[in-house]
Amino acid sequence: xxxxxxxxxxxxxxxxxxxxxxxxxxxxxxxxxxxxxxxxxxxxxxxxxxxxxxxxxxxxxxxxxxxxxxxxxxxxxxxxxxxxxxxxxxxxxxxxxxxxxxxxxxxxxxxxxxxxxxxxxxxxxxxxxxxxxxxxxxxxxxxxxxxxxxxxxxxxxxxxxxxxxxxxxxxxxxxxxxxxxxxxxxxxxxxxxxxxxxxxxxxxxxxxxxxxxxxxxxxxxxxxxxxxxxxxxxxxxxxxxxxxxxxxxxxxxxxxxxxxxxxxxxxxxxxxxxxxxxxxxxxxxxxxxxxxxxxxxxxxxxxxxxxxxxxxxxxxxxxxxxxxxx
Amino acid sequence: xxxxxxxxxxxxxxxxxxxxxxxxxxxxxxxxxxxxxxxxxxxxxxxxxxxxxxxxxxxxxxxxxxxxxxxxxxxxxxxxxxxxxxxxxxxxxxxxxxxxxxxxxxxxxxxxxxxxxxxxxxxxxxxxxxxxxxxxxxxxxxxxxxxxxxxxxxxxxxxxxxxxxxxxxxxxxxxxxxxxxxxxxxxxxxxxxxxxxxxxxxxxxxxxxxxxxxxxxxxxxxxxxxxxxxxxxxxxxxxxxxxxxxxxxxxxxxxxxxxxxxxxxxxxxxxxxxxxxxxxxx
Lengths: 326, 282
Known about the structure:
- The complex is a heterodimer of chains A (326) and B (282).
- With 326 residues, chain A is mostly helical.
- Chain A folds into two domains: 2-51; 68-325, Orthogonal Bundle (MetI-like fold), CATH 1.10.3720.10.
- Chain A has helices at 2-16, 18-51, 68-75, 77-108, 114-122, 129-140, 145-152, 170-195, 199-207, 212-223, 225-240, 244-250, 259-268, 273-301, 305-325; strands at residues 54-56, 62-64.
- In chain A, strand 1 (54-56) and strand 2 form a beta hairpin.
- The longest helix of chain A has 34 residues, at 18-51.
- Chain B is an all-alpha fold and 282 residues long.
- Chain B has two domains: 3-47; 72-279, MetI-like fold (Orthogonal Bundle), CATH 1.10.3720.
- Chain B is globular.
- Chain B starts with a helix and ends with a helix.
- The interface between A and B is large, with 84 and 85 residues.
């Protein structure tokens, strides 16, 4: 009789002890998020790995075909074309970073109406993808917004290309739409980084005769170089997985299909689930490679960042003083 | 010398403001042209250039048509329900998980952190092929709760924001509460959770914006548009029969943008701060 009672008793005792309490709360607080993570991220990922070796549709039979899907993807002309397109987006994102840096620097100094400018440049980021798609289809239509504005500037409307149809320009139009949406977000990040620079650095620098360019070159740039490099690396993965502008504006027609959009159509339009999974895994491995490269760069490239700032600043101030003395 | 300085100062100011004005013009141009077209009558839209101002700046008939045709009343109701549950869920689960990971030393702590970090690398839309099958097996397709659960499950950023925030709260605070006889639940809900307020606001903004604007998964998993239309997918109404009737389409677009604009004007500072904190921190 005693044994039966004792086991639950011991259990209850243990549960009431500090150790038991810890265990309960750990399970209670972690169960749901971990379950969601496994069910909606890792399970699909593992399944995708499995599917990539099969020829299959959503329903019906499937056949094991080994690495054939990967071979097909890597020799596909459209895929190669889409990787070339990624270059457009990569160049676009570098332009975007440069613009963001320029305007962030402008706006972090005293500016009349600074908040208005900042808000107007940032707002496109808050517009949903679908709304943006409609807006830019409208914007680029022959004789509509862009053509009208260009004709104000003296361009002959007849000589302008069809922005979304002509194969030479349509990808540039899409990249421009993407820059329009995300530049403001980058700018806000850069402003945040610049604001965290110690204000005294500017003051002492300008006392020593440093001009605005010197302040930018020797104080701002070195102290936000980490976030700039990080964003440059992120834009590599971003341009590989560019999806939104072509999906919502052109639907990937006329040679605007990026890798991601190709994969989407492969899966949902042509129902080639196996091949789409192989594409997803190729994309994923590229992202992992870039991420590892990023970690290595930050481990070995930026370890003495703070020292180099102060050294550079000191050198710059010395040179300035020498000039003044003359 | 002073003349030269003054000249450069004026030049610099000129370049600064003209470039700011140009970029601002480019930034608002698509939105402004959308507003102009949304205010035009059908005849006006057909007969005038898109950039010609509308005859009546208070013509809201297109908005009424768009609201009704795209079933936006229902769309806003659904999006509000989704927002409330997704925000509540991801903040509760995110902060609870972050509490355990930052306050409890146990085997597997680092492993779980890495699991989440690694998950952030997997492109979300890419896995939808197989997520769809799982949603199907769980009977979650075409249900609001299915979509809500899915949206709560894919949030790595907020967990990291919470972990970072916890690491700045001294552990001695928990310890003294425990000595005073407080349980772990008490420590979390009564002492730490109220201190998390800034982190909660950040997460609400980041998650709120992405949930409000999300269209890919809601299109995929809420296919029954007559029941489960959301604000972003309500715009799909305008793809078929409307063709080129941009005066209605633009009105619809503006309606979906308005809540975002109002929130943005009211909490600019928090949004900027949220974004800066939410940016990948290494």
